[in-house]
Amino acid sequence: MLQTTIIGYLGADAEVKNQNGKEFTTMRIAHTSKWTDGNGIVHEETIWVDCIMNGSSAVNEYLKKGQLVYVVGNTSLRVYSSAKDHCMKAGLTINVKNIELLGSKTDEVPSVLYKEDGGEQVELRKFYHCAKCARETTDPENVYLVDKKGKRYRADRAGWVYTAENDPNNVPG
Fold first, then answer.
1. Is 171 among the domain residues?
2. Is pTM, for the whole model, over 0.85?
3. By the 8 A CB rule, do 78 and 94 touch?
4. Domain coverage including residue 7
């Protein structure tokens, strides 16, 4: 067994597919290396890795373009003819056994917010969850938070934090 660990950004939203009655999730991860040669010229190389995960997971809704992920799985190499330039190429595929979200270049919700009534700092965990908001809510339904720039967010009774864009109830202005 050849096992690989990779950390990289998703190049597109993950897709759930179905083939011969079996459901699976596909995604592409990019890893870019940068280096400077002896002449001071900066070089950049991006390696794309195709990932396949059996079934559909609760984490799928968070597997969006730009999401930084940590993936572990069995590796296979495939050779194919490129449709663009008709040259033979090789590709790396990982059959995902474990995946973790590490953060995102495009996080919708900052990791540190402040209670709107009083300014107390609260920290969010993965998946935009504020455990403290869930325990200490005075409003039976919501806690309102703000970031350093004054943008508002809503934490529901369970502690899940929403932006105006992803809030099923919309954040009041």
1. no
2. no
3. no
4. 3-104
